[in-house]
Amino acid sequence: MDSPISPDAGIDTSSSPTEEATSTCGEAAVSAFVYPLAQQAALAFPGHVNDASQVDICHPFPLTNQAGSQVVLAALDCLRPYLPVSLPLYRRLQFGRFFEDTSCIITNLRRDDIRGSPQSSWTEAQNGKDDALSRPWFMAFVDRSCRPETETWVFGTWEAEPDGLAMGDKQNREAERLLRGLVDAVKRLPVLPSMHEAAAAELKNEERVDSVGNSPNEYAAHSDDPNIMLWGAIHERTMHILHRMGVIATQYKASAMPNHTFVFDVAETPTPPPLPKGLIWGEVHPRHFALVRSRTQIPRQDRTMVDLPSLAIYPSKSPSVAPIAWAFVGLDGSLTTLHVEPEWRGRGLAKAVATKLFRECMDGFWEAQIQTKFAHGFVQVGNEASARVCKSLGGRSQWECYWVRIDLGVVEDSPR
């Protein structure tokens, strides 16, 4: 999966790139940050069908032209009131790295639905507010060219309801209706060859297993079937609905494993400690990507890693030496692939890498209108070592999420 923390290392999360990269975060931090943030952007959503009973309510909006940039900015305006629950999709849109003909946003909202700063919830809808943003809505980022990596991130407003407020039958039915529309819209998108096709083929020979018995080959087993998609960071409430819809592919060994979602307030994280004598900061160089991949089962490819800001610790300045600890900022803004080599553990290096990454490689994510500087990371349930690292940084596990394979082949075609 694209983000869960490696069981034998530390946190596998993603954070946002910086607008002006520091020397340790690398040039990827600059090139990946496509769209500067702005306020009061107008969402360029066209109209959709008037009959609210229709499932065909979802429309894709390409992101690689000028109109697409306005879509991204207005999408952030819609998602912002739901932070931190909307954080994975929010950060994915902030990160950028959109591709022509394959990257799009899908939502049931229209251009006229956007009214400044939305503050909608299911409770408001029950109290009689009739605008679109006071009723359940969803938003998804989709890119069908990334197999076997994550192709879809989703947020639905039902995910942000307060703890203890059970989803009623009416809300469940509406959320399911919207998700069926999303799956139908995704099925209609053209499927191009994966940008990782050659690299994914090499994973078929990988037999090493992680702490739960899965190999890289098993994490990438769906890559040859265009009907199977990997959806990432799926909230537990949405996951229950997808189960009920019967669209989850269950034939794979490495499938639908729960992850803690740790959320951090960067201002409250510890100050990065100084490195032990002789160690130096740097970034992960492409020549070390094979080493990074050998320490995790997550099938993240070179073409992706080269775009991710990173930090690494080296035992000397010699260009021939390999790093002894590292972490990346993932496409969804999470701290990802945090790892310390076994012989260097127990010296606080994981904590040093994570806190420095939060404080120095995520400036491009912060916004003046958001007081809290949120960061996040995903830890596979049962990975106690990684969970301890997150807790030592002040992180709190706030909900469970999943990397899940969706089977478009079981979805019946709906009329256009």
What's the short version?
With 416 residues, this protein is of the alpha+beta class.
| Count of β-strands | 12
Tell me what portion of residues adopts beta-strand conformation. 15-25%
Helix coverage percent: 10-25%
Number of helices: 12
Briefly note the structural class of the backbone.
alpha+beta
Element string (H = helix, E = strand): HEHHEHEEHHHEHEEHHEEEHEHE
Describe the structure in your own words:
The protein is α+β, with helices and mostly antiparallel strands. It has 2 domains: 33-258 and 400-410; 266-399, Gcn5-related N-acetyltransferase (GNAT) (Aminopeptidase), CATH 3.40.630. It contains 12 helices and 12 strands. The protein has helices at residues 28-31, 66-79, 87-95, 122-126, 169-188, 197-202, 216-219, 236-245, 289-294, 302-305, 349-360, 384-392, and strands at residues 59-62, 103-107, 138-143, 152-156, 228-235, 257-265, 280-282, 310-314, 325-329, 335-340, 374-380, 396-407. The strands form 2 sheets. Strands 1-2-3-4-5-12-6-11 form an 8-stranded mixed sheet, sandwiched between helices. A 4-stranded antiparallel sheet has the order 7-8-9-10, covered by helices on one side. α2 runs antiparallel to α3 (87-95) and α5 (169-188) packs across α8 (236-245). It is globular and about 60 Å long.
